[in-house]
């Protein structure tokens, strides 16, 4: 079996690549923990100045794994992001809150605080849980064929777990994206301020590395402090506390779905979500 995440060094840049292209890089927990290990390796390597996050194949990522044969929601991993009990063996909201606090919200926050600049290099699909990965990166370079969506309102859920939408899109665009669940283009995302660069597909890698190498000329500690400064400013604009309050609404929605229909995702799976998005 090939590695779900690849790690390589190119000069001063570490490249972390999601590697489940046969499933459009759907993120299972195995991938989450492999990403965490790769980021940790890049942080621990004093030669690495900048980290690039990429996806192998046609698509950056289709989001969380809600239907591949490698789905592993009932598997225990050594927890890294939050000090909470393991979700395995728990029931209902207790189970969901434990798991999502660790592998979704907690991991995303942990990666947002990586003390080196991170750049997401995005092509093709960047859907729902994939937005979370792109958003925790400091910069986003997308190819002109990239498309984005958070369609989880169709499940009755107010957005993915890492609720950065109003901060990265602005409130009005955030509402449009969530209310319709429709795809939006790289150009649209750029206009809303969500992306740094939109480049031709053939140039994505070169443009991402050119930017990474430019940043790598700066002193490491200065970059770390600057990143922290902007992140702190964003938190003062309510990002962190806002996200905490919305995480409660997110889990109210999961619990409501489970209470009225017996399934926390309102009976939706990868196929039904894709089909609904095709016809919308
Ligand atoms: Zn959730």
From TrEMBL:
One of its GO terms (molecular function) is catalytic activity. InterPro entries: ClpP/crotonase-like_dom_sf, Enoyl-CoA_hydra/iso. Coiled coil: none annotated. CDD domains: crotonase-like. Belongs to the enoyl-CoA hydratase/isomerase family. PANTHER family: ENOYL-COA HYDRATASE (PTHR43802), IP11341P-RELATED (PTHR43802:SF1). This is Enoyl-CoA hydratase. It comes from Amycolatopsis rhizosphaerae. The lineage of its organism: Bacteria, Bacillati, Actinomycetota, Actinomycetes, Pseudonocardiales.
């Amino acid at each position: 079996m090939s590695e779900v995440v690849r790690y390589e060094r190119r000069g001063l840049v570490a490249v972390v690549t999601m590697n489940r292209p046969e499933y459009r890089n759907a993120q299972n927990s195995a991938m989450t923990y492999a990403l965490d290990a790769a980021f940790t390796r890049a942080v621990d390597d004093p030669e690495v100045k900048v980290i690039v996050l990429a996806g192998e194949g046609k698509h950056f990522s289709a989001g969380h794994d809600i239907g591949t044969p490698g789905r592993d929601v009932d598997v225990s991993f050594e927890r890294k992001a939050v000090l909470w009990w393991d979700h395995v063996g728990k029931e209902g909201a207790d189970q969901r809150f434990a798991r999502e606090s660790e592998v979704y919200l907690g991991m995303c926050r942990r990666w947002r605080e990586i003390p080196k600049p991170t750049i997401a290099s995005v092509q093709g699909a960047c859907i729902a849980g994939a937005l979370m990965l792109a958003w925790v990166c400091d910069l986003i370079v997308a190819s002109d064929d990239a498309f984005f969506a958070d369609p989880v309102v169709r499940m009755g859920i107010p957005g993915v777990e890492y609720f950065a939408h109003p901060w990265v899109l602005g409130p009005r665009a955030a509402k449009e994206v969530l209310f319709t669940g429709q795809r939006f283009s790289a150009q649209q995302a750029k206009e809303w301020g969500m992306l740094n660069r939109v480049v031709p597909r053939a140039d994505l890698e070169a443009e991402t590395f050119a930017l990474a190498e430019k940043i790598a000329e700066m002193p490491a500690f200065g970059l770390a402090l600057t990143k922290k400064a902007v992140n702190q400013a964003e938190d003062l604009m309510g990002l962190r506390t806002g996200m905490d309050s919305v995480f409660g609404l997110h889990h109210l929605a999961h619990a409501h779905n489970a209470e009225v229909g017996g399934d926390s995702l309102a009976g939706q799976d990868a196929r039904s979500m894709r089909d609904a998005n095709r016809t919308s």
